[in-house]
């Protein structure tokens, strides 16, 4: 399989929610996981 790790810094949750929404729509993305890391 092919895996990608993407690190994103965002000031608000709106960007992550949009990424989550688009990932669910995209047929090429079978699964995704968003993990919040506290600084």
Helical proportion? 25-40%
N- to C-terminal separation?
31 Å
What is the number of helical segments per DSSP (H or I, 4+ residues)? 1
- C-alpha Rg (nearest Å): 11 Å
Number of DSSP E strands: 0
Whole-number average pLDDT?
Answer: 88
Count of spatially separate domains: 1
Q: Strand percentage, roughly? A: under 5%
Poorly predicted runs of 5 or more residues: none
Choose one word for the global shape. flat
Task: Write down the secondary-structure element order.
Answer: H
Structural class: mainly alpha
Biggest sheet character: none
What does this structure look like?
The structure is a single chain. The chain has one domain. 33% of the residues lie in helices and 0% in strands. It is built from one helix and no strands. The longest helix has 13 residues. The mean pLDDT is 88.
């Amino acid at each position: 399989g092919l895996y990608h790790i993407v690190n994103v810094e965002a000031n608000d949750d709106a960007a992550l929610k949009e990424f989550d929404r688009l990932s669910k729509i995209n047929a090429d993305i079978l699964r995704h996981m968003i993990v919040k890391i506290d600084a």
